[in-house]
Amino acid sequence: MAESALMQNNASLWKRGLCWLVLLGPLFFLSYGQVNQFTATRHDMGSMVLEWEHAIPFMPWTIVPYWSIDLLYGISLFICTSKQELTRHGCRLLAASLIACVGFLLFPLKFTFVRPETQGIFGWLFHQLEQFDLPYNQAPSLHIILTWLLWLRFRHHLGKVARLFSGAWFLLIAVSVLTTWQHHFIDVVSGIVVGLLISYAIPVEGGWLWHRPSAHALRLAMKYCAGGVMFLMAGLLRSYSSILLWPAAALLTVAAGYAGLGVTIFQKNNHGELSLSARLLLFPYLAGAGLSKKWFSRRISLSNVIYDGVALGRFPDTTVAQAAVFDLTAEFRKGSHKTKHWKAYPMMDLVVPGVRDLRQAVMKLGQLQQVHKSVLVCCALGLSRSATVVAAWLLSEGHTESVSQAVALIKSRRPQVVLTPAHLQVLETFHKELRCRIPS
Fold first, then answer.
1. In DSSP terms, which residues pair with 344 in a beta bridge?
2. Distance between CA 267 and CA 206 in Å, rounded?
3. Per the CB 3.0–4.6 Å rule, which of 1, 98, 221, 321 could disulfide with 259?
């Protein structure tokens, strides 16, 4: 029965993949070709060429990896293993074509190098390309956007060795847009940016959720927004300062998280991993958070056992003594940690968790503790988020009879814990709900 269901699921996915191919293929050729033809008639075209680009060699053989993206494009629609993955991937490819064409219309550019004559099979491939592609669809490079989106899918379904080979081939495809004299460098950079934004905006796992933020969360959102605007203004002042647009985008995205999008901006799964797109887009913020953790944790112990095998501590840099880790951070990833049993329930930093989050976290912590006996409950420093959850767990398991007893026990083991009146209030509400559920 299970094998039959699997075969039916695979057949259904293949049909859906074929439908996506029938939709995307003609749409790509129609939209891309029409925009190219239209731009060829315009008189407002410019060009952006850096001086060092004149040293880029013309390498005819790289037309092979350049063309191979067409085959990989089709294959990518048939390697997805779930309806959601296929739908999200198809939407990404659709967005890539539409956004690129809009970019070509808004910022018409022309490729300026004259490609030399090429003979043999490579010459024939270049001739086939020239039958369709005029040198006007430049920035953002659709080839680069698709290279990024396709690589994300292939790396997800390949083993370690095959992933290395596919990564090298996709890198060769990306380089080929320069060595075939098809694009200038600005097209590549803009293509990378657009591809990253598309993969981030349309995540394969999870989705976007908005919740009404607290007053404190809104104040944090305003602070991050102000920082993002400052970097944005500085990045727009000079061409060489455009790198500052990266931290601007990261801070504005974090501001959106505090304004209501919450932990979804980090795209962290329950295994403790952030999506690659989120890690790249938010890298300036994540790097700052990592440095902050290292600085403030200099005089804080890694963890302290609180009760019955449950330890409270900061996000570990290496292996831990406990059998399992309950990770409450939204901004850090498990990465190469050797701990096998890692469960994540992301919470925003500096925000007091709600009662619903406490209920969910306590339930997951209780399950981990029952199975693995020793569990490290961690947040960035092990002072607030994790302390609140451990206090709620103590109350839920009946190890303490009041919030004040729970907090006192935790502080006796880990004195640096910081629980504000708002944390204590949510714990009191949580405890009140617990008592209401206990039959008299």
1. 327
2. 7
3. 221
